[in-house]
């Protein structure tokens, strides 16, 4: 009797192992099928090509777009006033709060005259697949990156409009803004080689720190934007300084000791020095160049000088810097 029970238990263990093994194989197959890419024609307009996912995106949890602290939804939709750089006519980038595919995706672009929609993350995922065969790379990092990108498939798209004008881009962004499922929309800004700035303190080698952090390499890709606001938490900023004037934004300026948006002028010099490092206007033929040639510097004055740090105001400082 005991031998019979023992055989039955061992047999059950074998069966459980077989079921687990088959389950793992099925999960692997489903996961692989989920990464197959097909370019399909969807919707009523046969001229609209969609780069889409074939079937369910993945068996993994889908990522969701989360708006960072202090950022409002309006900030995530570009407007003509945000544009310091040229952008491609008739093309824009659109992000969603969660993945969309097939007919559900088609519905999100109602009201737009679209020629092509390309899933950006899907393209990135496919371009990274060959990396899994390279022994020289850390495969754990490769797989982690692949999994992250894969979870974002269906959330970011490049849109090509039928009307190849810049006006059509701005009009489309306003239409998309009314769709609460759209997380952000922005033009396809053109990356230009900025070259070497002509600011004298840079050209004579005085700003050796910029070379140290390889800023010139970064400037080949971008030189900043006034749509980015940077709070300078210090002794204020000399907002009349000729190398800073173009990059000053006093809208959100704040004097913490006084508790108001008044007297953010720097009477010490330290805050102005910091502001210059962050965002002195670049390539304007004078003075120095900042890490960002174009940026919005917001003075957050917490002290009159080095000897007046007002540490009891740190909570309010953080609040106004974030907001």
Structural class: alpha/beta
Strand percentage: 15-25%
Rounded radius of gyration (Å): 27 Å
Calculate the mean pLDDT score and round it: 75
The backbone outline, from C-alpha atoms, is globular
User: What is the ordering of alpha helices and beta strands?
Assistant: HEEEHEHHEHEHHHEEHEH
Record keyword descriptors for this entry:
323 residues; alpha/beta; Rossmann fold; six-stranded mixed sheet; 33% helix; globular; disordered N terminus
Give a nutshell description of this structure:
The chain has 323 residues and is an alpha/beta fold.
Architecture overview:
- The chain has helices at residues 2-33, 102-108, 120-128, 139-151, 166-177, 200-203, 208-212, 215-219, 270-279, 314-322; strands at residues 37-41, 49-53, 87-96, 114-119, 156-161, 182-189, 224-234, 254-255, 294-301.
- β1 (37-41) and β2 (49-53) form a beta hairpin.
- The strands form two sheets. It has a six-stranded mixed β-sheet with strand order 1-2-4-5-3-6. Strands 7-9-8 form a three-stranded parallel β-sheet, sandwiched between helices.
- Residues 1-62 have low confidence and may be disordered.
- The protein folds into two domains: 37-189, no CATH class; 200-322, Peptidase S8/S53 domain (Rossmann fold, 3-Layer(aba) Sandwich).
- With 323 residues, it is α/β, with parallel strands linked by helices.
